[in-house]
Amino acid sequence: MTLGTGFVTIEEAMNHLRLVAQGQNGPVExxxxxxxxxxxxxIPDHTLFNGAAVYFPGTYSSGExxxxxxxxxxxxxxxxxxxxxxxxxxxxxxxNGEFLRQSVxxxxxxxxxxxxxxAPEIDPATGLVYTSAERRAVGFIFCDSIYMTGxxxxxxxxxxxxxxxxxxxxxxxxxxxxxxxxxxxAGRMAPHFAATFGEPGRIGGWMMGATEVGRQPxxxxxxxxxxxxxxxxxxxxxARATLVQALEEGTILYEGAVxxxxxxxxxxxxxxxERTPTPINRYQNGAYWHTPSGWLIAVLAESHPEWxxxxxxxxxxxxxxxxxxxxxxxxxxxxxxGPEPExxxxxxxxxxxxxxxxxxxxxxx
Length: 365
Hints:
Helices cover 42% and strands 6% of the residues. By secondary structure, it is mostly helical. It has a domain at 1-190. A hairpin with a 2-residue loop joins strand 5 and strand 6. The mean pLDDT is 97.
């Protein structure tokens, strides 16, 4: 979420890549007292200051009590693909993949990346990420308090991207056959996104968050799929038209920030999503986030420049008005916020500023 800003040195990125690699589980799964399982070569969700790996959100415990519902029975999927993203960033910045031959705890980095890519469960017929109630994994860190099962939209988008990125890493080592196999896997996945997550008669051009529990429109995922160019043809046109309609109707945007689910598609009067312990209009269940705003601006920059400019200006106005540097009563960038003060959560949240900056920096270039 920060590497693309240009403010993180390669040395820092390498240190973090090694840190993640050191916390990666070994070749034997761990069954925890909580009932959760850490699969072979799973990637931690976060690392404590003492270096201990925590594989599940919602806790700072690295012991037997981590995991279990409501945080999942398997570690979050996105962490495995973010591990690959770090390595690919280092390759892009240095132009040299030799660092992938470094050994961490007796295993080459490239082998750890390969194992991480294979660790999450997928649907073998489509290559899309799949999870069941019995083996549930959170798909994406910014939906980790939302209960979803079936094919997972955002996690699948990240797997598609990671396949391309790992192919780039393989090619830097002269592994052309492995690179082509990964690109073929991404190509195999692509047609299944609209077919699996789309339901035009019910949700228009939106893609749904998951196919079993969590069938609400996935605003972030739909934006990201357009940003990554995964949707094409009629599906892309419908998604863009639905997105603009939502902006015009005011169902997804507040002060340049984006909601996870359109307000007119709330699952019920008391929740945006079908199942979550979080109250409505709080956190990932209906608060507004600037984290995806850069993707949204980039998606609209060419086709709807007036909307792109309006969203950008609203976002910057919010940051300036609430800038934490103005004193103790100011807290932006918030992780999320909303019309009600109680919706504001986690002040001075890094990704709120860095991810839009990264996207807009590339857009300007």
